[in-house]
Amino acid sequence: MILHKIHDEHLLLRGDLKQVPHKIHYKHSFTVLRKLVFGLLFTTKQFKHVFILGIWNLTGRKKLKDEMLSMFLEKSESIYRESLRQSFSPVKLVKGEYLFFEGDKATNFYIVESGVLEVNAVQSEGRVYVFHFLFPGDITGEGCLYDQDRYPFSVTARKDSQVWRIKKSHLLENLKENPSLLKHLLWSVGCKLENAYAKARCITGERVEKRIACVLLRLADEAGISPLCGERFDSNLTNRDISGLIGSTEETVSRVMSNLKKEGVIATKGKELVILDREKLMLFFGSA
User: Fold this and answer.
1) What percent of the chain has pLDDT over 70?
2) Helix, coil or strand: residue 147
3) What is the mean pLDDT of the chain?
4) Cα distances (angstroms) measured from residue 216 to each of 207, 267, 280
5) How far apart are CA 135 and CA 140, in angstroms?
6) Residue 153's closest CA among 163, 142, 161, 145?
7) What residues contact 106, with CB distance under 8 A and at least 6 apart?
8) How far is residue 140's CA from residue 147's CA, in Å, rounded to a whole number?
9) Phi first, then psi: what are they for 90, rounded to 5°?
């Protein structure tokens, strides 16, 4: 926001009220009033610079994205949407920051607004097992719907992300009189459970080569090799990610991926993994 009559506002910040003109443009009256209140509180030199920086932060702050939150609220009964929206608060995560850890008290429900998050758990030998990734519109912390006491996994940001958080108690209270939203949440949880079963069928008991081929096929097409094999993956998929997804070691994954590159099945462009020959990968999957 462009400041109106900088000199006059500077007088306000100093607390020189007698020298301030009586007429202030209505468009900026709220900004001036806000500065007046804080100006009266912080008139000493040692706080002046901190205060001015704080004002610029407040007036220049960008509006938070809420597209995914709005889509979620559309599933609610209309009379509860606004009160439900007020119960959500934004959480911003930088790359590598954890939303919560495995074993933490399950007190919140989350909706991913932007970015990519990883859902994982550390096995007894210290290896990280990757369950899946969360993308805009996905939910996590849904265990509150069936009285889950603690989170059975950790969630960390793979890139800068934003999520919306609502307290478990607030969500459960709303669901008592909101059957439309309850139905949507049960459907969402059911889809996640079905995808988990599909993943287990896809990789359990198979050779490592076949499990890797399955993961790559699912990356190439959300429908994968069957209508149920539809998990999405982060584009910057690493050997560590694949080893976590299939329950193998990075060394084994590295060997198989090197063979696939030599055969012209896959390639890397920058940080992205590219599948060059899907049909050949299907043959690799079938013959492994």
Assistant:
1) 68
2) coil
3) 75
4) 15, 12, 12
5) 11
6) 142
7) 141, 143, 144, 148, 149, 150, 151, 168
8) 14
9) -80, 145
3-state secondary structure of 252: helix
Name 81's Cβ contacts closer than 8 Å, sequence gap at least 6: 73, 74
Predicted confidence band at 277 (pLDDT cuts at 50, 70, 90)? Answer: confident
Q: Say what the pLDDT of residue 232 is.
A: 52
Give the separation between CA 268 and CA 122, rounded to whole angstroms: 28
Q: How confident is the model at residue 78 (pLDDT cuts 50, 70, 90)?
A: very high
User: Which residue is it, tokens 């209505």?
Assistant: 26
Chosen CATH of 67-201 out of 3.30.1060.10, 3.40.50.1220, 1.10.1760.20, 2.60.120.10: 2.60.120.10
In this structure, are strands 272-275 and 128-134 parallel, antiparallel, or unpaired?
unpaired
Q: Where are the domains of the chain?
A: 6-60, 67-201, 205-287
Phi and psi at residue 136, in whole multiples of 5°? -50, 130
The alpha helices in the chain, defined as continuous H runs, are 6-14, 29-41, 45-60, 67-73, 81-87, 168-175, 179-203, 208-220, 239-246, 250-262, 278-287
Say if CB 119 and CB 153 are below 8 A apart.
yes
Q: Which phi and psi angles does 192 have, rounded to 5°?
A: -65, -40
- Beta bridge partners, 165, equal 89, 110
DSSP designation for 173: H
Q: For domain 205-287, say whether CATH 3.40.1190.10 is its number.
A: no
Q: Cα 54–55–60 angle (5° rounding)?
A: 100
